[in-house]
Structure formats: structure tokens, C-alpha cells
Amino acid sequence: MIGPHEGTELPLMLEGKKPLAAFSDIIPENGKVAEEIIPEKLFKPHVVAEKINRHEHQFQTSMGIMKIVCFTIPDENWRAKSYCFFREKIHKKEIEYTDTMDVIFGNLLGYSKVDIQGFVKQE
Questions:
Q1: Neighbour count for residue 43 (Cβ, 10 Å)
Q2: H or E element, residue 48
Q3: How many of the other CB atoms lie within 10 Å of CB of 79?
Q4: Which residues of 66-78 are buried (b: 16+ CB within 10 A; e: fewer)?
Q5: Could you give the domains of the chain?
Q6: Which of 18, 49, 107, 121 is the Cys-Cys partner for 12 at CB 3.0 to 4.6 Å?
Q7: CA distance linking residue 101 with residue 103, whole number of Å
Q8: pLDDT at site 115
Q9: Residues 6+ apart with CB under 8 A from 120
């Protein structure tokens, strides 16, 4: 995945500069994905204050149940739905992961064209 916003998602979202942040992992046996992987506590006050929306999607993979949690700024919920749709289709091998998917994910996440092009070229 493209990552120039990694670790700065929340401040960028609160400034209106990032429309979507997405986090995911296979749910472990204890049922709780670590905060370091899906930062629920970090985003929770802003979700409660309705400054950010939370979306969750789960689906079965060969490794276990994948949990995706997306956070969007208001009026950008469609990005979370699109992101989760494509992620599930890729995991289920219904869509091939190509450079085009990197461009789609980069655009959904709010990365600049320069960052997206740089990421695609480095692969």
C-alpha cells in the first residue's frame, strides 16, 4: 500500500486534507486487533463528536476473518464502501491486484497524483 500519510491520518483528516483512513488485520484468537494496527481509541473521540465517521467491514479469508476499519470525514462515506468492496474482491481473488488498483486505493485515500505515481513506479 501507498503510505505517505502513515501515522498522520487523524490530523490530516481533522484539517480536511484526507478523506479516508483505512486499517485492517486478521482478527486474532482473542478477538481484538491491537490498537497499534487499528487505532480505534485514537479516533473514537472524533467519531463520538461526529467529526469523523467510522465504518467496519469483515469477511472470511484463507487466513481467518479480515477486519477493515475505515474512518472518513463527513460526506465521504462512499470512499469507505468502495475501499472495502475492492479489498474484499482482491482477497477473494475476484479482482487481480494491479497498478490500477494502487491508483484507485491512492485516490480513495486522498493521496496526491505525484505520491501515487511515485509509488506505482517504485514497485
A1: 21
A2: helix 40-48
A3: 21
A4: bbbbbbbbeebee
A5: 9-122 (3.30.2190)
A6: 18
A7: 5
A8: 77
A9: 99, 102, 103
